[in-house]
């Protein structure tokens, strides 16, 4: 069975066909996050620290580190990104013990990250352009690390899954020319938004099966891409991830946490409740309030996508602690046997009379 080994100084994450699904936390990335980008340019790493700790607490196996800030003072990422990547990696690996994924389109930033990252990080990424292959694959070989291979080349991203498969195959073959084994290639087959392409889900499931069966490689994706532009994105993601897992996908770059409810939303809801004439107990704290009214939590916690993944691991027999998962998800006061059923089937014990 194909296994891709990713390591920190003290911990190993295994991406593999017979392993629990590997969650790569995506939140340490300033793309589309103006506040985080401004903080990083100013040397403020407080959000990075919070995101690192929250993602690991939510169950992320690997943390993706992206330092792609376009500085207002210097728009050249070749100059600004490598030193920032070093700082962020050194900070994060001092806070958490999970392995890291070094994520950049700037080769200098990738190498800067490789120079300071402890263990065996995952490199994100290489694409099918020959120029890119000639730059990135020697780094992969030099540092003996696994790499994410994205299925696009100089022609762009094809809507034809056969073309994306051909690009992935070419990357695997070129990697072999550098002495890089297939088990160190994690292919991203590129998930298209189903809002733009109705068959996108079916395409990626078929493509993942083909990548597994014909190339013997592990796979990953940007999980939230599938729901881009649609309402109830969490509902779509929650369905997509278990389906992708059963098709053979072995990891995803995703947000493992449910974002906390902010004070503005709490205040708005309190005003709405009071206007409706509901009298709340004196001194009710915000956490009790938001849970009572189904708003979520004022604290970061594991998102619904993580529950879907854990359930899929259980159902595909890739959860070595399945019984523990069942017990921790039982309603308070229920029996320890999960209502008479365990993983092995119906309980053999007799039911007590009331």
Question: How would you explain this protein's 3D organization?
Answer:
The chain has 354 residues and is α/β, with parallel strands linked by helices. Helices cover 43% and strands 15% of the residues. The chain contains twelve helices and 14 strands. An eight-stranded parallel beta sheet has the order 9-8-7-6-5-4-3-10, with helices on one face. Strands 1-2 form a two-stranded antiparallel ribbon. Strands 11-12 form a two-stranded antiparallel sheet. Strand 13 and strand 14 form a beta hairpin. It starts with a strand and ends in an 8-residue tail after the last strand.
Which outline best applies? globular
Which assembly state applies to the chains in this document?
single chain
What about the largest sheet? 8 strands, parallel
* Strand composition percent: 5-15%
Q: Briefly note the structural class of the backbone.
A: alpha/beta
Distance N terminus to C terminus? 50 Å
Q: How much is the radius of gyration in Å?
A: 22 Å
């Amino acid at each position: 069975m194909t296994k891709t080994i990713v390591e920190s100084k003290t911990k190993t994450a295994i991406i593999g066909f017979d392993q629990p699904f590997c969650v790569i936390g995506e939140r340490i990335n300033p793309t589309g996050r103006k506040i985080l980008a401004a903080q990083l340019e100013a040397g403020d790493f407080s959000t990075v620290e919070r995101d690192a700790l929250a993602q690991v607490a939510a169950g992320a196996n690997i943390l993706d580190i992206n330092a792609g800030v376009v500085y207002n003072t210097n728009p050249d990422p070749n100059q600004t990104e490598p030193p920032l990547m070093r700082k962020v990696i050194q900070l994060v690996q001092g806070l958490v013990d999970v392995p890291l994924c070094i994520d950049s389109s700037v080769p200098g930033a990738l190498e800067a990250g490789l120079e300071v990252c402890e263990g065996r990080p995952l490199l994100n990424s290489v694409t099918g352009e020959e120029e890119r292959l000639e730059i990135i694959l020697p780094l992969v070989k030099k540092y003996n690390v696994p790499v994410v291979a994205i299925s696009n080349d100089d022609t762009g991203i094809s809507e034809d899954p056969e073309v994306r498969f051909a690009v992935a195959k070419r990357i695997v073959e070129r990697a072999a020319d550098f002495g890089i084994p297939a088990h160190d290639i994690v292919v991203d087959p590129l998930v298209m938004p189903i809002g733009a392409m109705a068959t996108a889900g079916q395409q990626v499931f078929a493509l993942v099966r083909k990548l597994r069966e014909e190339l013997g490689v592990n796979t990953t994706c940007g999980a939230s891409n599938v729901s881009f532009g649609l309402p109830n994105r969490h509902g779509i993601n929650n369905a997509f991830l278990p389906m992708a897992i059963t098709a053979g996908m072995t990891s995803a770059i995703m947000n493992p946490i449910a974002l906390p409810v902010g004070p503005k939303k709490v205040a708005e809801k309190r005003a709405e409740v009071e206007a409706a004439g509901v009298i709340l107990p004196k001194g009710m704290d915000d956490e009790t309030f938001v849970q009572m009214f189904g708003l979520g939590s004022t604290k970061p916690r594991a998102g619904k996508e993580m529950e879907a993944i854990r359930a899929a691991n259980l159902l595909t027999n890739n959860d070595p602690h399945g019984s523990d998962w069942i017990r921790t998800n039982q309603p308070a006061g229920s029996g320890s046997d999960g209502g008479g059923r365990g993983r092995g089937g119906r309980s053999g014990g007799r039911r007590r009379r009331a």
